[in-house]
What we know:
Layout: E1 4-6, H1 9-12, E2 15-19, E3 27-32, H2 40-51, E4 56-60, H3 76-88, E5 93-99, H4 101-112, E6 121-124, H5 126-134
Parallel strand pairs: 3-4, 3-5, 5-6
Antiparallel strand pairs: 1-2, 2-4
Amino acid sequence: MNEEIKTSVGKEGFEGILFTADNTKDKVLIVTSGSNGGIKLTKECAEFYARHSVPALALAIFGTKQTGKNLDRIPLEYVEYAIRWLKKLGYRKIGIDGTSKGSELALLALQSFLLFPVLLPVCRPISSVRDLFQKGK
Length: 137
């Protein structure tokens, strides 16, 4: 059974929603938004992965009540906190899916956190993500 676990900046150091998938702890994806901000599209992407048996953490990087107002100077430690939290939950292989501007954050996280077993950035323009949901693929 899939579960939804919400986090907060005050408690874990980042804001996000983890969508579990069939109690698997083998792998998990961190999903970040682009310049649209907020968590709506990121949440939709994470839910999509979870429905297809891949647990995913929708990571809000800006534009929410708990994060900065603008896409400006997002600290890499923000992603690191999410990685550490996921590892505490027992996830072993951690990937990162960055859409549009979020792909830059994904690539920086990949370069910066080589100590983690797996960080795989998936970089694509926001239009391809919108197409994915609008066409029901």
